[in-house]
Amino acid sequence: MNKTLGIRTGGRSARVQAAVHRAVRELLDEQPREALTVPQISQRAGVTPSTLYRRWGDLATLLGDVALEQMHPDALPEDTGSLRGDLLAWAQDYLDEVGSPLGRDLLRDVVSSQANDCPQRCAALLTQRLDRLLARAKRRGETPPAIEALVDAVVAPLVYRILFDPNPPTPEQIEYWLDACLAQAPRRRRRKSMTPAS
Amino acid sequence: MNKTLGIRTGGRSARVQAAVHRAVRELLDEQPREALTVPQISQRAGVTPSTLYRRWGDLATLLGDVALEQMHPDALPEDTGSLRGDLLAWAQDYLDEVGSPLGRDLLRDVVSSQANDCPQRCAALLTQRLDRLLARAKRRGETPPAIEALVDAVVAPLVYRILFDPNPPTPEQIEYWLDACLAQAPRRRRRKSMTPAS
Fold first, then answer.
1. How far is CA A30 from CA B24, B41, B166, in A?
2. Which chain B residues are Cβ-neighbours of A173 within 8 angstroms?
3. B164, B173, B184, best to mutate vs chain A, most A CBs in 10 Å
4. What are residue B196's phi and psi, to 5 degrees?
5. B195 is a domain residue
6. How many domains does chain B have?
7. Whether complex ipTM tops 0.90
8. Are A13 and A37 in a shared domain?
9. In a designed cystine with A157, which of A88, B59, B152, B192 is the match (CB 3.0 to 4.6 A)?
C-alpha cells in the first residue's frame, strides 16, 4: 500500500477511506457537526463501526482526517506571474476555505486530533504547497523568502487569527504580512542560521 | 456575581469552580488525560455530574476552562528594565508552560472547546497581559509596537509552532521574531491604518 502524507491509496483500504470520507462530508452537509456519530457514519459508508475505530481510533481523529483532505486539495493556484500574486491568491483561497465557520471547525478538529500527528501532517501539507510556489518563483528568477520565514510571517498570523480571533483576518492584513515578509526576504536569507528550520 | 474574563468569582459559584478546577488538576497529575471522566471529576470535587454539565456543557469545555486558568496566572513578569527584556521573559515563561507536552494538550483543549468562546477568551487574556507590558514600556519612555503587530509577529508564530510543529520553537527563534517586530515598531505605528485592529 502506498502512503503519502495525509492520503492513503491502494485497493480496498483506499475504497474504505473514500467511502467513509464521502459519508462524513455528506452528513456534515445535512446536520450539525455535534450530531455526528460513528454508527451514522459507518451505516452511510457501508462499513462496520469497528472498521472506523480500528482505522481512526476515535471520531475526532476521523473528522481531523476528513478536514485535512478538504483543506488541502491537490491543485496549485494558477500562475499569476509573480510570487506575491501567487501567495496572495493562495492566502485568499485558504482564508475562503478555512476562515469560514465550517472551515474553522475543521481546523479545530485537526488541532484537537491527537492521533496520527494530524496537526503536524496538516502543517507539512501546507509547507509542501508553499514550497512549490517558492520553487515556481525561483524558476522565474525571483528571490523568494525562506519557507520558515514565510510560515512565521504569513501562515502563523493567518492561522492564529482564524483559531483565536472572533473575526477572520482581512485581505488587507494578509497583504500587509506578506509585503513585510517579502521586503525582508534577501536579508532573512543571509541570516538563515538565525531561523533554524524545525 | 462578578464576572471577569476567564475567571468567575463570588460565593457558592466560585467555590464550586475552585473545587472542580482543583479536582481536574489533581486527577491530571495522577492519570492520562484521555482517562478523565465527568463522574470521576464530580466525585473528587464533591459535586453532582449535572452541576458540571450545567456549568460547562461538556468535558472538553471544562478542560479548556482549567487550561485557560493554568495558562494565565495573574502575576506579570518582573520588570527587566526594557520592553525587549520583558517580552523575552514573557515568551520564555509562555514557552516553558505551553510548549511542554502537557501545555500543548491544554492549548489544544482551549482550541477545541467551542463553548464560552474559550479560544477568544484565551487570546484576550494574553493580549491584556501584553498590553500591560507595553504600558510599562511607555512609562519608561520607550516606543512600543502596536499590540496587533506584536501578536502577529511574535505570539502567532509561537502558538502556531507549539500547535503544529513537532518541535517547540527555540529561544533563538523567539528572539529573532521579537527583534524583527521591535525594529519595525516606529514604521508600523505610523502605518496603523494598514493593520486594522480586530
1. 36, 35, 35
2. 152, 195-196, 198
3. B164
4. -55, 130
5. no
6. 2
7. no
8. yes
9. B152
